[in-house]
Amino acid sequence: EPVLYVNAEGRFAFESLEGEQAIEALASQSSETDVIQLRADAELAAGALAKILRDLSAAGLARVELVVAAP
Q1: Dihedral over alpha carbons 41, 35, 15, 53 (to 10 degrees)
Q2: Quick one: CA dihedral 28, 58, 62, 47, positive or negative?
Q3: What are phi and psi of 28, to 5 degrees?
Q4: CB atoms within 10 A of CB 14
């Protein structure tokens, strides 16, 4: 399953891509039924997480599994 990594500052990456390019690549490699794993730093602000989830949904990635990594 594809994994999107998010650091405490809200920067996110997929493979070697960051930001919007990461979401575009993730969307192009996934179908609407695929589950995306989002690995977030425990220090990530809730508002930043909500924005990332909205961006993923807007890209057609509605199924997200959240994994929180301890700092």
Answers
A1: -50
A2: positive
A3: -70, -25
A4: 20
The backbone torsions φ and ψ at residue 51, rounded to the nearest 5 degrees and listed phi first, read: -65, -40
The secondary structure of residue 48, as a DSSP letter, is H
pTM surpassing 0.85? yes
Using CA atoms, how far residue 51 sits from 6, 42, in Å, is 12, 16
pLDDT tens digits, 23-52: 999 999 887 668 999 999 999 999 999 999
Q: Identify the sign of the CA torsion 5, 7, 12, 13.
A: negative
Using DSSP, state whether 28 is helix, strand or coil.
helix
pLDDT band at 62 (very low <50, low <70, confident <90, very high): confident
